[in-house]
Here is the input.
Amino acid sequence: MSGSSGRVLVFGLGGTIAMAATGSGGAVPEFSPAQLLAAVPGLAATGVEVRAEELRRVPGGSVRLTDLYALAGVVRERLAAGFGAAVVTQGTDTIEESAYLLDLLHADRAPVVVTGAMRNPSLAGADGPANLLAAVQVAAAPEARGQGVLVVFNDEIHAARRVRKTHATNPATFGSPDGGPLGFVVEGRPQLVNRLPGRTVIPAAAVAAGDGPAGARPVRVALVTVTLGDDGGLLAGLADRADGLVVAAFGAGHVPEWLVEPLAGLADRIPVVLASRTGAGPVLAATYGFPGSERDLLSRGLVRAGFLGPEKARILLHALLSAGADRATITAAFGAAGGHAPASTWPWPTGFAGGEVGSGYAGSIR
Here is the structure.
């Protein structure tokens, strides 16, 4: 079991929270996580022992998947060494994806909290110090244990698998359209109003640092958004360049009828996951029956993403392919993670149902 939650390690990846304006006026990553912590009012008064460790200093869009696989390993090592929780600061552009990947790789009950800022420290109303303080308070709280990776922003606590960035500039950008926030930070104290019933975790030993099975080239998963009048040109030859594909389809999982055959052909060669581009709600299974409907596409071998949006579906597919999962395993995993199949469909043993999670695995339904 991990150590006391009173010891929190803050990992820095960069992002707006760590940026400063340059002479030309544009903001670039500048501050280390130790400098960020030193600028947080009231942090010492929490009584939480906080340490800092910098891993990257880049904008959110320049964080690599391999960075996150490596970070997940470092988090495991530090928790095993006695830290009780971790906080990750990074750019908000990719938080909804990075937090979900970390969640898939985090089998411990110790909290891992991801946060950032929408306004850099050189601007009036910079939100980084408040978000970082709230993240530390949540990470150190017993209430956060067992809830996996969380995103704390604007005094709201979100589950990694549900959270989305919803606005380009608003400090209240993060929301969870399917389920709402898990809770809030009130007067410095986390208050959870609902809790996750279980988790879906891929064993760390099964994932080869995001590089696929030993000896293989790095895994590549494409994401194609279907648009009005789409001629399917982006799909041509994709199976020769990608190991998997996520299709961000219209509505509940629909595409133009002329895309059905190209998608079916791709699904014969690589895993093709059907997600919705709408931003909330699930891909259906049997409501519509026209060519290009969800029923039609699923019958042709596409995999239903359920409640997972396209970006998170791509993260899950990448992690599964990195673990060497076959088509049946991928379909089963999306059933559990997407919320449209029982917990027992998760491919790995389920070791979490309110008790401690072992270091090797955990898994359950949404």
The CA atoms of residues 239 and 266 lie 6 Å apart. Helices lie at 33-38, 65-80, 95-104, 128-139, 260-267, 294-299, 310-322, 327-337. Confidence is low (pLDDT under 50) at residues 351-366. The two ends are 24 Å apart (CA to CA).
